[in-house]
Amino acid sequence: MEIKEKFQEHLWDLNAYDGKVYEPKEDTLFFLETLESDLPMIKSLNPATILEIGSGSGLVISSLSEVFRKSFCLAIDINPSACLATVNTSKLNKTSVNAVQGDLINGMVLKNLIDVLIINLIYLPSKSQILDDSTAKAWSGGMDGKAIIERLLPQLNDLMSEKSVGYLLAISNTSPRQIEKMLEGMGFTAGNIQIKTLTSLNYALIRFTKGI
Questions:
Q1: How far apart (Å, rounded) are the C-alpha atoms in residues 117 and 16?
Q2: How many Cα atoms sit within 13 Å of 74 on the Cβ side?
Q3: Among 147, 201, 152, 8, CA closest to 89
Q4: Which of 4, 155, 166, 172 could connect to 202 by a Cys-Cys bridge, CB 3.0–4.6 Å?
Q5: Confidence at residue 145, expressed as pLDDT on a 0 to 100 scale
Q6: Closest Cα to residue 124, out of 80, 169, 86, 81?
Q7: H/E/C letters for each residue in the chain?
């Protein structure tokens, strides 16, 4: 009987960030559970570079770094406090994660370098798509909740390597089936949408692959 590999339980401490960083909750655990089930497939890619966009506390990318010790793990978040928290989570768990403050991948040269992509992005609808406060930007998804995701999707083909996998977390108001169709229209194999109801919200985790 095959023993399913699991992530080690990770530590985090967000006390220094005055509530400016999203606390890991049920949606984070949902993400980790899905990644756990895909670990054999991810290992078959022998990933050189793993990227998380919207790292928050850093729990997801640090968990991946613990398993993929030889991979370069990079986290990007628009919230400077989240970048600090991600590095701190990595240190607490003795993993290796680099964190960069940025607006998606703007200004970064990552052409076809990403083997595993984690999109853990903003998903809450807001009255305005343009907010000056970086903490507010860390949860604002624009008028329909998916404005930021729609900015990122056109860049994915240039971002991901020839054989790669990506995961995108969304909630029902961001039309996950529509996002899936957009990914397929770009040439990705998208599907395996897992739906889970957590704290009265329906979460959807979309897996999409390129070349596998």
A1: 28
A2: 20
A3: 8
A4: 172
A5: 52
A6: 169
A7: CCCCCCCCCCCCCCHHHCCCCCCCCHHHHHHHHHHHHCHHHHHHCCCCEEEEECCCCCHHHHHHHHHCCCCEEEEEECCHHHHHHHHHHHHHCCCCCEEEECCCCCCCCCCCCEEEEEECCCCECCCCCCCCCHHHHCCECCCCCCHHHHHHHHHHHHHEEEEEEEEEEEEHHHCHHHHHHHHHHCCCEEEEEEEEEECCEEEEEEEEEECC
- Measure the CA angle with vertex 37, ends 69 and 21; round to 5°: 65
Q: Tens digit of pLDDT for each residue in 140-175?
A: 545 455 778 888 999 999 999 999 999 999 887 767
* Cβ atoms within 10 Å, residue 26: 13
Find out whether 31 and 167 touch, Cβ atoms under 8 Å.
yes
Q: pTM above the 0.70 mark?
A: yes
pLDDT, tens digit (0-9, with 9 covering 90-100), for 170-191: 887 767 888 999 999 999 999 8
Measured CA to CA, the distance from residue 121 to residue 56 in angstroms comes to: 9
Q: Exposed, middle or buried: residue 72 (CB in 10 Å: 0-12, 13-18, 19+)? A: middle
- Give Dmax over CA atoms of the chain in angstroms: 54
Encoded amino acid at 193, one letter = I
Residues 93-114: tens digit of each pLDDT: 999 999 999 999 998 999 999 9
How far is residue 93's CA from residue 79's CA, in Å, rounded to a whole number? 21
